[in-house]
Amino acid sequence: MLPGLLTGTADREAVATDRSGYRPASLPDGVVRATRVEDVVDTLRWATAHRVPVVPRGAGSGLAAGASAHAGEVVLDLSGMDRILEIRPADQVAVAEPGVLTGDLDAAAHEHGLFYAPDPASAAYCSIGGNIATNAGGLRCAKYGVTRESVLGLDLVLADGRRVRTGRQTVKGVAGYDLTSLVVGSEGTLAVVVGATLRLRPRPDETATLAAHFADVGTAAAAAAAITAARLQPSVLELLDEATLLAVDAARGTSLRSSGSAMLLAQCDGRGAQADIAALGAVVGRFTPHHRSTTDPVEAAGLLEARRAALPSLELTGDVFIEDVAVPRSQLAAAVEGIAAISARTGVRIATVAHAGDGNLHPIVVVPRGESVTEGPAWEAAGAVFTLALGLGGTLTGEHGVGILKRAWLREEVGDDSLDLQRAVKAVFDPLGILNPGKAI
């Protein structure tokens, strides 16, 4: 028996699935709660020797069932590896274990006049390891990119227990193949991340924030596309539709919906922030007179918290499945209007929020409590959204990963030859196929 393997029912129930709404038909055989690298090495050596599949797990905040597990599998819980090992302000670099919460790393960087750019709406409870697994994005990705742009190097444990270091400690470096970028976004199917060297950035001297309200979500999306077309680059550009605004108002006691049926939230940073937000306001003004800007950090924080509250607020109204499609930014309005049409046609409630600055939409399917979101009419509506995104030249996932829930559509997006090549790469890293089997590809 593997030392440290917990097999109690409560232990297994706690790690059987993630936040996706997916419900496995059975429980995993057990869970190992790693607190040091040696725990990971021992688990994978044992798993290789006994041909036991292992499901790496971080904070459990994933939204594609990538960390779900069932009978015959063992969960490797990395949330206890939660130390920030080093912050080097002179190099603008941090070294962290996978269980460190994203918001905690950002807060630690702030003490040195720096920040960690990836900023998922779930930053308060998602982990660095999970962000790396899915190549997470977030609110600030409009300007600073997704997780891959902030990962310089990784400490990995391979499926057979060998330790490997990829990447570098420097901002630039092209020695060898870029294995770091390959592992980022691989959803725990290639190796287990036990440490990451991460790029930090200087905290902006100024920020300015704009909130704009629109008569309908299509107009709001068109305004977002116009901002991009005007060569403006806010650090944050978020869209919330009517269903989302109503849920946030009900949960937080706000009155956002009273100002319009959709909202754009934009933020610019750096020494030209106020001039940039004024230019952005001029573009938005062509679509709505209802917009205001602020440099008050308290007011800005309140607006950003309203955006972060979107999913938790909708979860109060029913069971949810949050999608993660992305389209070319010029197609954003077509996407939101298409999603609204799918909701009307199927009778399935779909609320939409979006990282409008990079065309990444999160249509959130909401069903009555206890009803499945991964079968029946709700799942049919979700499939229609996937098809819509692909038809607009987009992708199945911008930042949540494929996991289990989107695998049926993956071949349609990437094609046979690409999928075969990816599976060949998987076989090199994990010849026995024991790392997170059945996920991603």
The helix/strand class is alpha+beta
DSSP, total strands = 18
Approximate shape: globular
Rg over CA atoms, rounded to whole Å, is 21 Å
- Multimeric state: single chain
- Largest pleated sheet: 7 strands, antiparallel
Strand order of the largest sheet: 15-12-14-13-17-18-16
N-to-C CA distance: 30 Å
In percent, how much strand structure appears in the residues? 15-25%
Q: Residue ranges: pLDDT <50 for 5 or more in a row?
A: none
Helical percentage: 25-40%
SS field, number of helical segments: 15
Mean pLDDT: 96
Describe this structure in words.
- This protein is of the alpha+beta class.
- The protein is built from 15 helices and 18 strands.
- The protein has helices at residues 9-14, 37-50, 102-110, 128-134, 141-144, 179-183, 217-229, 242-252, 273-284, 297-308, 310-315, 332-346, 376-391, 407-414, 416-429; strands at 5-6, 30-33, 54-57, 74-77, 84-88, 93-96, 114-115, 151-157, 163-167, 192-199, 201-202, 207-214, 236-240, 262-269, 291-294, 319-322, 349-355, 360-367.
- It has a seven-stranded antiparallel beta sheet, with helices on both faces.
- A hairpin with a 4-residue loop joins strand 5 and strand 6.
- Helix 12 (332-346) runs antiparallel to helix 13 (376-391).
Keywords:
21% strand, 18 strands, five-stranded antiparallel sheet, seven-stranded antiparallel sheet, alpha+beta, globular, 441 residues, 15 helices
